[in-house]
Amino acid sequence: MNSFIPVLIILFIVILLTGCASANGFLLPSEEHIEHLNSVRLNYLDDPGWWNYSNVLKIKERVKSYLDSNPETKNEFKLALQELKIVKGMSKEEVFTVVGKPTKVSRENDGIELLIYEGKTDIDDVIGWYSEWGKLRFKNNILVDIEVRLVEVHK
Description:
Layout lengths: L3 H15 L11 E8 L1 E3 L11 H17 L5 H8 L2 E3 L4 H8 L4 E4 L5 E5 L16 E6 L2 E12 L2
Antiparallel strand pairs: 1-7, 2-3, 4-5, 5-6, 6-7
Helix pairs in contact: 2-4
């Protein structure tokens, strides 16, 4: 029993020195950071095995319906919508066409409306965001900031 304790201590030191431990407690080191992007494309778009492809078809139908009803949509945003992408400068309606309704909505002190997306929403049975987490900020119903949390796991 006494010889087991030094082995544990050595194992702990090896794990720390080799970088196999991380602050989040997992044995794989990971790096988490927040990015503010100009645009985001749904990353499950071309991989029906990754997600329920019928949801992607529903989103494509929603985009087509929106574009048919709004022929005056700027070409930049029309192309983005067809690519299932959101871009700064889009209206809230255009953004909702691609990513659906948010999980939570709040107002910040400067009049900015904050929309929080946390994975799949149950609204319209359609995915509400392209990854597990994101925040969108709108001013006067125009998208002014796209904030995402990215986690990279190093093997």
